[in-house]
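Audit log entry. Action: structure prediction of a protein-small molecule complex. Ligand: zinc ion. The ligand was supplied as SMILES and no pocket hint was given, so placement is left entirely to the predictor. Protonation state taken as written. Sequence taken verbatim from the request; no trimming, no tag removal. Recorded inputs:
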Amino acid sequence: MPTSNNRQYSKQEIAAMASQIREKYFSSENPMDGLLNIIGKNHGTLEVSFGVPEETLKIREDGSFVITIPANTSPLRDVFTVAHELGHYFLHSDRISPASFNRSGTNQKETEANWFAAELLMPAHLFRKASEELQYDPQRVAARFGVSGAAARVRMTVLGLV
Ligand SMILES: [Zn+2]
């Protein structure tokens, strides 16, 4: 039976979880290395969908999972998409029972997965420091974190830096 976790998280709880996970799995400057490390160590795989563009997480009976991303998106955008799907994995599944997440999830879950992705890829304290150093230039800050300019701009707004 599909299980999904309906509890809600505060931003602080999500930030704390993302920070622990980052500490455990991220070691290089390239965020995709860290994301692939999380996926590999938790019996997951990353697949590219060449047909209908898909951004999904599916957890199977045996607890393994697959994240699917579209074929025609930019690598920088893919970083955020994969981090978002991992947000569903850590926040909204029990990681051992079949479950499926796509864009039709509730707004609350989608928002939480976005918070998780932002915290995982752009931890607030590091992001504030880098933004100051780089004169709040979204492109340069984005390059520092290996994310898209759009993601860095949203993060600056959310953190009240611009
Ligand atoms: Zn989602």
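Audit: result stored. The chain has a mean pLDDT of 93. The first strand starts at residue 44 and ends at 49.
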